[in-house]
Amino acid sequence: MLVIIKRMIRDWTIFLLFCLFVVLFLFAEEIRNNSIFNRIPSSFFNVNTIFLSIILEAIPFILLGVFVSAIIQSFVSENTIQKLLPRNAYLAIFPAALLGIIFPICECAIIPVIRRLIKKGMPSHVGVVFMLSAPIINPVVYASTYFAFKSTPYIANARMLVGFISSIVIGLIIFRFFKGENILKDRIDGHRHPHHHSEGNKFFETLYHASDELFDTGKYLFIGAFLASLFQAFFDRNALLSLGTNTALAPGVMMGFAYVLSVCSSADAFVASSFGSTFTEGALLAFLVFGPMIDIKNTLMLFAYFKKKLVVTLLLVTPVTVYITVLIFQMIFL
């Protein structure tokens, strides 16, 4: 009972904070012109604007993700998952890395889908590969990257290739350390609806699961978006510009920048292209590959749904793998 009360307090606090941000967004000018509030630095209003822009950008993809997750729960059986995947643990990694071509899901929505698939019987390392590659290897992201880099269209192809290779390598490492291990947290869902509908009514079952996923996932999106907006509003970007032409340091700098900005993979190419005159192509590629794999908002979701050991491993292995892959790629091709 105490756990349920704590969850309710946390959920309502997040909801009220979101309402406060909406009010500030709608009435920012009136508040600024009020003599009581005119001493508040403009940076705080920028936090509000950036926060809402991240939320509005991510919400459509979150909705897509929770409905895909709910459909999997209602319509996809464990036997189906087993039949679709190759029995060989290593061979199963390669089709998993290409599933994003069929399921264009960005990093804002992929985590509830992966959690559901793993619960349905997908091997943990295969789920991790799908989670890391899908936000990069999908037609929506490819198209946005191609149009953002019209003068250098090969960047779109490079993004797909480096993302594919990196996810494969990370998947092999996860398989080595977590073979046969349950990587999901045992969660107590205090707001879970009682399911009075009949077992055969798949439509209502899907709606119930989707509403639960949205409520559960949304609060972590809000916290992550708020932290990302704080970094964007107060971090001095000019401090990074002096490092932009260093072929060894620039990729690492832009990976850190991608983590902080937490821009949706469907739109991050346009952010990356704005740094084209300052940073090397390798650095831009690192931004485009690492950001969709790990950022602030999905780090919080990972800690909420997966065991700490796996999340810490991903936080250590992913940046190292992407950084090395980008360095090798730029030495050979760029």
Automatic annotation (TrEMBL):
<feature type="transmembrane region" description="Helical">
    <location>
        <begin position="49"/>
        <end position="72"/>
    </location>
</feature>
<dbReference type="InterPro" id="IPR005524">
    <property type="entry name" value="DUF318"/>
</dbReference>
<keyword id="KW-1133">Transmembrane helix</keyword>
<comment type="similarity">
    <text>Belongs to the UPF0718 family.</text>
</comment>
<keyword id="KW-0812">Transmembrane</keyword>
<protein>
    <submittedName>
        <fullName>Uncharacterized membrane protein YraQ (UPF0718 family)</fullName>
    </submittedName>
</protein>
<feature type="transmembrane region" description="Helical">
    <location>
        <begin position="92"/>
        <end position="114"/>
    </location>
</feature>
<feature type="transmembrane region" description="Helical">
    <location>
        <begin position="310"/>
        <end position="333"/>
    </location>
</feature>
<dbReference type="InterPro" id="IPR052923">
    <property type="entry name" value="UPF0718"/>
</dbReference>
<keyword id="KW-0472">Membrane</keyword>
<feature type="transmembrane region" description="Helical">
    <location>
        <begin position="239"/>
        <end position="263"/>
    </location>
</feature>
<keyword id="KW-1003">Cell membrane</keyword>
<feature type="transmembrane region" description="Helical">
    <location>
        <begin position="269"/>
        <end position="290"/>
    </location>
</feature>
<feature type="transmembrane region" description="Helical">
    <location>
        <begin position="161"/>
        <end position="178"/>
    </location>
</feature>
<feature type="transmembrane region" description="Helical">
    <location>
        <begin position="12"/>
        <end position="28"/>
    </location>
</feature>
<feature type="transmembrane region" description="Helical">
    <location>
        <begin position="126"/>
        <end position="149"/>
    </location>
</feature>
<dbReference type="Pfam" id="PF03773">
    <property type="entry name" value="ArsP_1"/>
</dbReference>
